[in-house]
Design a protein that fits this description.
This protein is an alpha+beta fold. Helix content is 40%, strand content 11%. The protein contains four helices and three strands; from the N terminus they run E-E-H-E-H-H-H.
Length: 122
């Protein structure tokens, strides 16, 4: 499949990948006055971003995952406010135990979320 190229003349930065991350990077760079060339082998959202559920899950452990995923959710909220056609819904998450043996693990995950200031119920 031919590459899709969305470009300004003589770009300052080349962003490779037209998924949600590449498009967000290109958007914020261009908003800051940087000339951007966005390249993707299939076109905008032609890969994973175009066929996945787009779920951002806050992961409680290790602790730095929690801060990084919170930052990501914050950036998505900013995009929702900045771009009128950008769809983002805060939906939460449901973790399931396949067997009774998994229940202690779910208790640990709930405790990690609670320790990180997130709402979690078992």
């Amino acid at each position: 499949m031919p590459a899709a190229v969305y470009s300004s003349s003589s770009p300052d930065v080349v962003v490779i990948g037209g998924g949600i991350i590449g498009c967000a990077v290109a958007y914020f760079l261009s908003s800051a006055g940087v000339k951007v060339c966005l390249v993707d082998r299939q076109g905008i959202a032609g890969g994973t971003s175009g066929c996945c559920q787009g779920h951002l899950m806050v992961t409680p452990s290790p602790a730095y995952f929690l801060s990084m995923t919170r930052a990501s959710v914050g950036l998505w909220r900013t995009l929702r406010q900045t771009l009128p056609d950008f769809e983002f819904r805060d939906t939460g998450c449901l973790w399931l135990a396949e067997t009774g043996d998994d229940l202690p693990l779910l208790g640990e995950v709930a405790a990690q979320f609670a320790a990180g200031g997130e709402r979690a119920e078992l």
